[in-house]
Task: inverse folding
């Protein structure tokens, strides 16, 4: 193909054949006026749906004040957002960036430098989980336990070992005194909506403590109310040392964050890490408005009944439809594992006006807004059931 015939955008995405131009709440519209129910939410990015009122108002107000000044200066919305995150969590300090991948990179660097200060330079190894997903940069890709993502880009960052998620014996085999940190998603998202076994995360915490290793939770997809608590670690009752956030934090506006406890975060000093756009006034003000709207509207508490509706639906579909093997996930991030690839199911749903996704080739994934109206939730699930029947017939 000659340069003159190439599309202007690089072909890194397998896109569905629609162009979305407008959205409000759970509904979006394409350039032909076709309505869709959005049950994917930008891949778990929209806890309040499209263009939520309070964050939208805040974004517009901030856009009329100040867009960007860089982190050479104090930024009031950033200070306020950091305080909100600290007050709402077990962490003491926050580093802001622009995405989940960048948050993971910050977490890896922070773990390395903290371990060096505490134990010496020999502690440089990370233990990550098979079937995990942490991002596309070389560092985050190196701790992503999926060969299909890694293979085209080897050699990757060295000194990474992998354990099987949910298997304590597998983790113990990989642990040694050279481990700086264990990095994991408390519930694996991209890898198939894999829930941890009962007591597993507590055992991981214990093993990390025994080896003097840090524990990093990647909550980029499962945080901000997605599983039924503001942060996933609160649901499972096991605190990490470092946590990453993005996606839902900005409600659709790009922002990432790396949170850590003081004895670790103290090792990030001027010159160790930075981000030009991280925590800029627009992103910080919008993210704070998202968190306030979630809190003020009791959105997470109200979402639990919606999550139960989805859970019951997934169980019914698995019981009634051949090829639907088992429900997966938790809260407002659920799905079904099938006995075959689900891409045709996604296309059936698209044709029927419903946007859904997948978590691995054989697993359907839905991530509707936490405040999806009950009537639209019912409408979307009814459409989904019809499409599953068509897909499985």
Result:
């Amino acid at each position: 193909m000659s340069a003159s015939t190439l599309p202007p955008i690089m072909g890194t995405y397998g896109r569905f054949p629609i162009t979305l131009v407008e959205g409000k709440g759970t509904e979006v519209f394409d350039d032909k006026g076709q309505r869709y129910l959005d049950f994917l939410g930008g891949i778990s990015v929209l806890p309040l749906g499209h263009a939520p009122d309070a964050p939208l108002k805040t974004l517009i107000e901030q856009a009329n004040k100040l867009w960007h000044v860089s982190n050479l200066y104090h930024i009031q919305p950033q200070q306020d957002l950091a305080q909100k995150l600290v007050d709402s969590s077990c962490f003491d300090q926050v580093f802001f960036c622009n995405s989940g991948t960048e948050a993971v990179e910050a977490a890896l660097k922070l773990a390395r430098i903290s371990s060096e200060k505490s134990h010496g330079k020999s502690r440089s190894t990370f233990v990550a989980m098979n079937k995990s997903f942490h991002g596309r940069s070389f560092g985050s890709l190196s701790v992503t336990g999926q060969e299909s993502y890694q293979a085209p880009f080897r050699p990757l960052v060295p000194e990474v070992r992998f354990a099987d998620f949910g298997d304590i014996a597998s983790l113990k085999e990989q642990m040694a005194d050279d481990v700086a940190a264990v990095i994991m998603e408390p519930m694996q998202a991209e890898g198939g909506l894999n829930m941890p076994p009962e007591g597993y995360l507590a055992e991981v915490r214990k093993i990390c403590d025994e080896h003097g290793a840090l524990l990093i939770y990647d909550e980029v997809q499962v945080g901000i109310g997605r599983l039924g608590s503001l942060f996933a670690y609160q649901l499972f009752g096991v605190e990490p040392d470092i946590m990453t956030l993005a996606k839902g934090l900005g409600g659709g506006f790009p922002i990432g964050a790396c949170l850590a406890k003081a004895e670790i975060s103290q090792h990030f000093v001027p010159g160790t890490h930075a981000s030009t756009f991280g925590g800029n006034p627009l992103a910080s003000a919008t993210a704070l408005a998202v968190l306030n709207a979630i809190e003020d509207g009791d959105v997470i508490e109200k979402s639990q009944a919606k999550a139960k509706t989805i859970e019951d639906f997934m169980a019914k579909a698995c019981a009634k439809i051949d090829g639907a093997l088992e429900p997966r996930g938790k809260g407002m991030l659920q799905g079904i594992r099938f006995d075959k690839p689900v891409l045709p199911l996604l296309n059936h749903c698209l044709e029927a006006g419903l946007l859904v996704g997948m978590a691995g080739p054989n697993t359907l994934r839905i991530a509707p807004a936490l405040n999806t109206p009950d009537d639209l939730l019912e409408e979307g699930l009814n459409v989904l059931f019809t499409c599953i029947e068509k897909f499985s017939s």
User: Anything to note?
Assistant: The chain has two domains: 3-52+298-392, 53-296. The mean pLDDT is 97. The CA atoms of residues 306 and 377 lie 8 Å apart.
